[in-house]
Design brief:
The structure holds 2 protein chains of 2 kinds. By secondary structure, chain A is α+β, with helices and mostly antiparallel strands. Chain A contains 15 helices and 17 strands. Helix content of chain A is 39%, strand content 19%. An 11-stranded mixed beta sheet of chain B has the order 1-3-2-4-6-5-10-11-9-7-8, with helices on both faces. In chain B, helix 3 packs antiparallel against helix 4, helix 8 (224-234) packs antiparallel against helix 16 (467-481) and helix 10 packs across helix 13 (376-399). The chains are: A alpha+beta, B alpha/beta.
Chain lengths: 479, 496
């Protein structure tokens, strides 16, 4: 019997506002413990929350970018539970009337483009951090850092319409790309600014009702989400195949063991006693506010990918990679505007440039590179001024120094040799020096030509025009 | 010396006038009150914290400012008391609870800030029912407050410390809070004037929350005009409180002494049925007759959902309280019990030891009302009833300008009389609770005495943000009924 997986993902995205959601404390990371706190975010007696308008702006951006329906009146609710990182004993969240519902995200799958519907998007506050690891592991106490308390979060919940770990990964990456494009979240799973929990169940293919689901937590990378989903789907199918029943529970992904382990069962689940927060008035959003935010929505990743393929005739793979970052996509377009060979520019960006960016863990805007540099290198190659190999060397120099590639070519004398007589002279000498290889070639083993090309290039310090070298060698070697 | 002997009989208005005319200094007034507190409060027990040195230092500052010609308005240099529910930076704020028995706030409530800006001198923090949950000030962790008119009786609650202090001449005026009657009922039982403004009129920032959708701060004073003077100081929009409303603050004092001719006074028939002490019924009706003589048009009205108000309140208020009081967990501030071995044990023991029985009862009630599967039947239904109660009032206000009712069904009862019977205790607020549920302003002023010479209060309820109507009607009524004055040593009325 074939099984089908049913997956819904719940993402918590930390918003890049300067201040917290209900007080004016800064949201900056890496500060001394409890330095970004005040009476409000540490839950002192008598304090009251005041909503940060920017958080609503950001939520509206996410809602509009996902074609969600925005509620004209939404409500903040209290989610009640005790934990030392939760200073008020409740989290201010949205429950019955969230700011947005019913949007969707489109992903590309093996079967083509697929729409994953969103249940809801809502705003809430983050909790603090407990320190009871590392140097505190042996102590009999835990320490609490409230710097992260009340940092704004968006919770984005998908419908259970994801059918495989790959689709889950594609959905998450697309959602991350959208939020990063909107400049409202930095999308870093490892650092926890973009977190994902998953609801997973399996059912016999063709069945319309859902199987019993488990909730997966603690997956802190895109790869881990895919691996955890893969494992959990397999585990559930195994349980059913062995005649057992999947039980509703929360399971943690254990990175070290590469498996999910049970954390708590349904019986141990909290009753959060949600109710509307009487300290906050209903949030009213008018057409003017929505209109203003709508104007600020940039071209989104998927639309940009489609346009790149169409407009620049580059493969889907290229456009997907180029559009992962708005800065890289903008950079690409600026370079193509200066020199029209889009595919060659794309190749250089996807290989040489991205390798450096990934190694240095920087964004393209943080380097010395300009679109003119890349356009210049590709143009010099296209014009036959330099070879592709020299182009890569020049790129390294440009990346390190920020110097103009044309200037580097001239100063270092890297201009490609296209003087036929000069090349022919070197080629003839190479053939004369290697009579055995020449014989081999003439006996029909044409593969040896590469050896001669290499030797000629070596003789010209790589500056010879490779096409010309090929042509001349063939002519000289022919009997 | 004879002059200072009488200082505690002066109203806030008169004291301020003497201060401005430099006939008396803020220090003299403050020392007089501190000395009275020293002498009398051991028995009355209206204060949790008395600010001896700080108050005198502050009075000296106000005197110096006055000499420089810097007068901060009609409250300059006047000492006042504050219910111990308002956060006062650097000054112990207990909320009447063991769990906050060592809590010194790192910030000021807006009410305290505004009172300080208005030039008042804080005498101390006044006793109250624990977390404002009670109608007798007997649930305070620090012991009960006694009614100055009969020290065997309760002063009402939860702002019982403030009302008793005003009645006993231990402060000229005070600010309390009212969630279901906690200003008006003790004012009524102590012969003082107490006003709960419209929800949203006074900032709740820094006022320790009991039930957030009902809590509101207001003055407790000797006279209606004093209430108006104090209300002006604490009212107004506060960006730190999202539920405070940006409506201008009128000069309330100017509504004192106006003619009432043509004012339409509604008498809700549901407030004059069984369960009222006969003398209360008699004195309130006497006040209504006085209003008629003052030119008011008396109209019988109906508030049909009144019967459900108490039940509705005892779902909504405990539900909010159960969540508001979750922060008292021993982790960051306040009392933490010792000897626990794990987190849950620490939570349990801290809250078991830190909260009193009434607070625990309401946390249990509220937690239950919000539980999965019960929410709709309890909290959801209570919210719908609340809407109906509010609608009753709005409809009544189509026909009348104000409503007049008894403040409390009885006069002050005996200490311990109702502590074992919470339901009877809850009935003490049956006439004040609907006003909170509807968010309306209400004032209580003394209107007579019962056979035991205990004060009876009459309540006037007004439209949203029409506190001036209440001041106008209450002031006119007070002019014919007379203010109650200060209780003497024996509890008998002391002539001023």
């Amino acid at each position: 019997m074939g099984f089908e997986a049913v997956i819904g993902l719940e993402v918590h995205a930390q918003l890049k506002t300067d201040s917290k959601i209900f007080c004016a404390c800064p949201t900056a990371f890496g500060m001394r413990a409890n330095s970004n706190t005040c009476p409000v975010c540490t839950g002192q007696p008598g304090v009251l929350p005041v909503l940060n308008r920017k958080v609503v702006d950001f939520a509206l951006k996410a809602a509009l970018a996902t074609e969600s329906t925005i509620r004209r009146e939404s409500i903040f609710a209290r989610k009640n539970y005790f934990y030392p990182d939760l200073p008020k004993g409740y989290q201010i969240s949205q429950y019955e009337l969230p700011i947005a519902e019913g949007g969707f995200i489109e992903i590309d799958t093996k079967e083509g483009r697929k729409r994953i519907n969103l249940t809801r998007i809502h705003m809430e506050e983050d909790a603090g951090k407990l320190l009871h690891e590392a140097e505190f592991e042996q102590s009999h106490f835990s320490l609490v850092d409230f710097n992260r308390t009340a940092v704004p979060l968006l919770e984005i919940v998908s419908e259970p319409e994801i059918r495989s770990p790959e689709e889950g990964g594609a959905y998450l990456r697309m959602l991350r790309d959208i939020l990063v494009y909107l400049d409202i979240c930095d999308g870093n799973m490892e650092e926890g600014s973009f977190r994902c929990d998953a609801n997973v169940s399996v059912r016999p293919r063709g069945q319309s009702t859902f199987g019993t689901k488990t909730e997966l937590k603690n997956m802190n990378s895109f790869r881990n989400v895919e691996k955890a989903l893969e494992y959990e789907i397999g585990r559930q199918i195994r349980v059913i195949d062995e005649g057992g029943e999947v039980i509703q529970e929360t399971r943690l992904w254990d990175v070290a063991a590469d498996k999910t382990v049970s954390m708590r069962t349904k019986e141990e689940a909290h009753d959060y006693r949600y109710f509307p927060d009487p300290d906050l008035v209903p949030l009213e959003i008018d057409e003017g506010w929505i209109g203003k935010i709508r104007e600020s929505i940039p071209e989104l990743p998927l639309a940009k990918r489609d346009r790149f393929q169409r407009e620049y005739s580059i493969p889907a793979y290229d456009s997907e990679i180029l559009c992962q970052s708005r800065a890289l996509a903008d950079f690409f377009e600026a370079a193509v505007a200066m020199h029209g060979n889009a595919k060659a520019i794309s190749n250089l960006l996807m290989t040489e440039v991205l390798r450096e960016l990934n190694r240095d863990r920087v964004d393209i805007t943080e380097t010395k590179l300009t679109p003119a540099h890349i356009a210049g290198i590709v143009k010099a190659t296209d014009d036959g001024v330099i070879s592709g190999k020299i182009g890569k060397e020049i790129f390294q120099i440009v990346y390190q120094t920020g110097d103009d590639p044309v200037k580097i070519i001239e100063e270092k004398g890297l201009r490609q040799v296209s003087d036929e007589a000069a090349i022919e002279k070197i080629a003839q000498k190479v053939i004369d020096d290697h009579p055995g290889e020449a014989m081999t070639y003439r006996e029909g083993k044409k593969g040896v030509l590469g050896f001669f090309v290499g030797q000629v290039m070596k003789g010209t310090k790589g500056k010879a025009n490779p096409a010309l070298v090929n042509e001349i060698l063939k002519k000289l070697l022919e009997p | 010396m004879g002059r200072t002997m009488e200082l505690h009989h002066l109203t806030l208005e008169d004291l301020a006038a003497y201060l401005r005319r430099k006939e008396v200094t803020s220090r003299e007034v403050t020392e007089h009150y501190l000395s009275r507190i020293h002498t009398h409060d051991e028995e009355i027990h209206s204060y949790v914290t008395v600010l001896h040195d700080e108050a005198i230092r502050r009075a000296d500052e106000m005197d110096a400012a006055l000499l420089r010609g810097e007068v901060r308005g009609p409250r300059h240099g006047v000492p006042i008391g504050l219910k111990d529910i308002f956060c006062t930076g650097g000054i112990l704020t207990t909320c009447g609870s063991r769990i906050l028995s060592n809590f010194v706030p790192p910030y000021d409530s807006t009410v305290y800030r505004k009172l300080a800006d208005a030039g008042t001198v804080l005498l101390g923090k006044q006793n109250m029912d624990e977390f404002a949950m009670g109608s007798s000030t007997e649930t305070s962790h620090f012991g009960a407050t006694k009614n100055p008119w009969d020290r065997g009786r309760i002063p009402g609650g939860s702002s019982g410390g403030s009302a008793a202090a005003v009645a006993a001449g231990l402060c000229p005026a005070a600010v309390g809070t009212d969630t279901g009657g906690s200003i008006r009922q003790p004012a009524s039982l102590c012969g003082a004037v107490g006003m709960k403004p419209t929800y949203g009129r006074v900032s709740r920032f820094g006022m320790i929350a009991f039930a957030s959708s009902l809590d509101q701060a207001g003055p407790i004073t000797k006279t209606v005009k004093d209430a108006a003077i104090l209300l002006e100081a604490i009212s107004g929009y506060d960006p730190k409180d999202s539920t405070s409303v940006d409506v201008g603050v009128p000069p309330y004092r100017e509504w004192c002494g106006r003619e009432l001719t043509g004012t339409r006074v509604g008498i809700p028939k549901e407030y004059f049925v069984g369960g009222i002490q006969p003398e209360v019924d008699r004195e309130v009706k006497r006040a209504i007759a006085a209003l008629e003589r003052l030119g008011c048009e008396i109209v019988e009205v109906s508030l049909p959902h009144t019967d459900y108000a108490l039940a509705c309140y005892y779902i909504v208020a405990p539900a909010e309280a159960s969540s508001n009081l979750a922060r008292y967990d021993g982790v960051r501030y306040g009392y933490r019990s010792e000897g626990h071995s794990d987190l849950i044990g620490m939570y349990r023991q801290t809250r078991a030891d830190g909260f009193g029985v009434e607070v625990k009862r309401r946390i249990m009630l509220g937690t239950y009302a919000l539980s999965a599967g019960y929410y709709d039947a309890f909290y959801g239904k209570a919210l719908r009833v609340r809407t109906l109660i509010k609608r009753d009032f709005l409809e009544a206000f189509n026909a009348v300008d104000v409503l007049v009712t008894p403040t409390s069904p009885t006069t002050a009862f005996r200490l311990g009389e109702k502590t074992e019977d919470p339901l009877t205790m809850y009935l003490s607020d049956v006439f004040t609770i609907p006003t909170n549920l509807a968010g309306l302003p209400g004032i209580s002023l003394p209107c007579g005495r019962d056979e035991e010479n205990l004060p009876v209060g009459v309540q006037i309820i007004g439209k949203h943000f029409r506190e001036e109507d209440l001041i106008m009607v209450a002031s006119a009524l007070e002019s014919v009924l007379g203010a109650f004055g200060v209780a003497g040593e024996s509890g008998a009325r002391e002539e001023s």
